[in-house]
């Protein structure tokens, strides 16, 4: 059910507020734009704003706002019940066009929203003041009522020092991350050499810059190394494997390999490519075992991925063909 409400009618503070300033709103289309990803109540959230002009909007162009929850999770048993309030803010008097929803998120339904938060002709009406210099402001307030089937996350802010634990600052894309030499060295032979091996005398500085590493991707790696309970997923597995291979973190490689064996997010050919690139023998055996007839296995040869496979992998595929 959709209803107009006032912000002050909500009794308690929201669990999450996502505010988006959208530039060049005149160019906004059906693909839309997304906010950053946020964490609240052990779930991931993001907002998507897009236009729509379809049968369900009676062919009228409208502005839609959609909240996405836990979309990357591969768990099948979670559920989240929320009240959310979407609003577009007026630049004239800070008035708002707003909708209130009560809805549930689950693995089969990870996004909900206002299909028609405001008609496009109302959005463009200068008397309403929603657009200023081709920019609008969208706000979504989320009140979480109940969460089930979700493992509690231990979110770590690596940008903040923790006494006695973080004794070096790694600089990644000009961002400073406070980490423990001992902890990283325990998992990574590369960091062990840098901090305590033959490079130790050169690296007694309190800060060290890592080159050719993306900040967000390195955070994903740290979240796997540190006890956060954050799982590897389809979005992160590629760069986590790349970084784990670069810094020789076998524990992370094994976790990524286990994820790829269990997940249904990737086709077998894509999994073979991961196995070939990073020498994941268990994953390789798992993938080849899935081919039970010769015709299916022969479809690999014309593929782009097959052309890039190592001789070792091509030989394993040929051996499998002989077995069939």
Descriptive account of the structure:
- This protein has three domains: 7-148, Apoptosis, Tumor Necrosis Factor Receptor Associated Protein 2, Chain A, CATH 2.60.210; 153-252, Potassium Channel Kv1.1, Chain A, CATH 3.30.710; 266-324.
- Helix 4 (215-225) packs across helix 5 and helix 5 runs antiparallel to helix 6 (250-262).
- The protein has helices at 120-124, 181-187, 189-196, 215-225, 237-246, 250-262, 268-278, 281-289, 294-298, 304-308, 311-323, and strands at residues 16-23, 33-34, 38-40, 43-52, 62-69, 79-89, 96-105, 111-119, 135-148, 168-172, 175-179, 207-210.
- The strands form three sheets. Strands 2, 3, 4, 5 and 8 form a five-stranded antiparallel beta sheet that branches.
- Mean pLDDT is 88; it is low at 1-9.
- The chain contains eleven helices and twelve strands.
- Helix content is 30%, strand content 27%.
- The longest helix has 13 residues, at 250-262.
- It is of the alpha+beta class and 324 residues long.
- Strand 6 and strand 7 (96-105) form a beta hairpin.
- This is BTB domain-containing protein.
């Amino acid at each position: 059910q959709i209803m107009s409400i006032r912000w002050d009618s909500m009794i308690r503070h929201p669990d999450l507020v996502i505010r988006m300033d959208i530039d060049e709103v005149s160019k906004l289309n059906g693909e839309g734009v997304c906010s950053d990803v946020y964490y609240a109540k052990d779930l991931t959230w993001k907002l998507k704003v897009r236009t729509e002009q379809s049968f369900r909007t009676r062919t009228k162009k409208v502005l839609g706002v959609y909240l996405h929850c836990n979309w990357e999770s591969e768990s099948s048993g979670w559920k989240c019940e929320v009240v959310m309030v979407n609003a577009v803010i007026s630049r004239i008097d800070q008035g708002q066009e707003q909708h209130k929803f009560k809805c549930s998120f689950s693995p089969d339904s990870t996004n909900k929203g206002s299909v028609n938060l405001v008609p496009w002709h109302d959005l463009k009406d200068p008397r309403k003041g929603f657009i200023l210099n081709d920019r609008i402001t969208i706000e979504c307030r989320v009140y979480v009522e109940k969460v089930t089937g979700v493992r509690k996350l231990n979110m770590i802010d690596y940008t903040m020092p923790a006494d006695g634990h973080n004794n070096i600052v790694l600089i990644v894309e000009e961002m400073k991350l406070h980490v423990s030499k001992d902890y990283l060295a325990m998992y990574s032979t590369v960091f062990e050499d840098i901090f305590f091996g033959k490079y130790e005398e050169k690296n007694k500085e309190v800060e060290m810059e890592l080159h050719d590493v993306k900040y967000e991707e390195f955070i994903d790696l740290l979240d796997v190394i540190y006890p956060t309970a954050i799982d590897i997923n389809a979005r992160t597995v590629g760069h986590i494997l790349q970084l784990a291979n670069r810094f020789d973190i076998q524990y992370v490689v094994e976790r990524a390999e286990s994820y790829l064996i269990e997940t249904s997010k990737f086709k077998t050919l894509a999994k073979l490519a991961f196995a070939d690139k990073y020498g994941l023998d268990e994953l390789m055996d798992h993938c080849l075992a899935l081919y039970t007839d010769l015709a299916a296995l022969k479809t690999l040869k014309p593929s782009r991925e097959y052309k890039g496979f190592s001789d070792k992998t091509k030989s394993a595929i040929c051996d499998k063909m002989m077995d069939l």
